[in-house]
Every structure is written in C-alpha cells, then in structure tokens.
C-alpha cells in the first residue's frame, strides 16, 4: 500500500494496519468493505492519515452498499428494455449517485447518499435508461 492513493478492500477483517495506511500518499482514500469487520476500522484509518474512509457498515459514515445502485440500475434497465448492462449504463449510475450529494454537503464523511434516500432509485433509473443504446 506504500505510496498508494486509494485502497479498496473486500477481503478479510483487520488485515490493514495503521502503519500500512500511514505509508500511503497524503489524503489517501480507503474503502474497507469486509463485513461485518472491515480491513481496518475507520477511526484507526483516519488516525493513520486517511482522508476519506468508507465501509460496508451502516454505523459508520460513507456506507458503501449495493442497495444504493442496484434497484435503480435494474429498474432503468427493465423499463428501457436493455438487453445488457453496459459500461455506459454503470458509469451513468455512478454519476447519478454522486449527484445526489450536493456540493454544499460533500465532505470527507459524506461522499455518498444515504442508502434509503427516497430519490436514489429514480435518479439512478433515469440515468441508466437515458444511456441504453
């Protein structure tokens, strides 16, 4: 992880140390998504120098959860009668999700909309449907 800008973990609990995080570049981003125990706990990652930390857990900021994406992706694909999910559709969904956090609310502990934000599925669905070819 030395000199890395980002770490994306989906493996096992407690496998990332504070020293590993400290060896990353300044303002590093960590997505420690092993569940229920992440690769490193968010408070330890922040203490070691990470600027943004996301986990799969709902009891920490920046919960990375597929419930934010999948309902809207599938709704848009089904309504648009897509034959496949394309890269363009996935990118449109990602941009739509990102658009749901207003710039005025965007900060290190708020990079994603809440999983149960009532606008997520419809905004993602429209973006996906608009990108079906």
UniProtKB/TrEMBL annotation:
Lineage of the species this protein comes from? unclassified sequences, metagenomes, organismal metagenomes
Q: Which Pfam families has this protein been placed in?
A: Malic_M
Q: Which SMART domains match?
A: Malic_M (SM00919)
The molecular function terms in GO held by this entry are:
NAD binding; oxidoreductase activity
Residue intervals of the Malic enzyme NAD-binding domain? 1-133
For this UniProt record, give its keywords in alphabetical order, as a comma-separated list.
Oxidoreductase
Q: Which residues form a coiled coil?
A: none
The protein's name = NADP-dependent malic enzyme
